[in-house]
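User: Predict the complex with 2'-deoxyguanosine-5'-monophosphate.
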Amino acid sequence: MSYDQNNIFAKILRGEIPCDKVFENDYVLAFRDIDPKAKMHILIIPKGAYTDIVDFGANGNSQEIHEFYKAAAQIAQENGLTENGFRSIANTGKWGGQEVPHYHLHLLGGEAIGPLVSK
Ligand code: DGP
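Assistant: Here is the predicted structure with 2'-deoxyguanosine-5'-monophosphate placed in the model:
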């Protein structure tokens, strides 16, 4: 899948639409999900143009990947998610239910999150 420069997270990165930012550095932006599925629902995105975790893992450089997961740890700690635990999810592609084609990690917490999938 080629990267769509007009996806909603690309627009957020360009400052064309606002977000409720919780973290930013040269490599990573994190903001609150517009439709939270838990008391705390944060999205973490790399600033590079990667469609999903496969693209990021295969084509991201080592600094981008290091900075991404370092930021994820810092964001989880700073937002009080590490004490009782939380869930991190990367939906990928059609069957994974990915809606926005820019790689993002969901952090869900602030309460018990429940089973991984419902049937
Ligand atoms: P996914 O289904 O994994 O691609 O998750 C996309 C998430 O992005 C979904 O939980 C809703 C969120 N989202 C979509 N549009 C916006 C937006 O404009 N702003 C913010 N903050 N979140 C958005």
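Helices lie at 8-13, 53-59, 62-78, 93-96.
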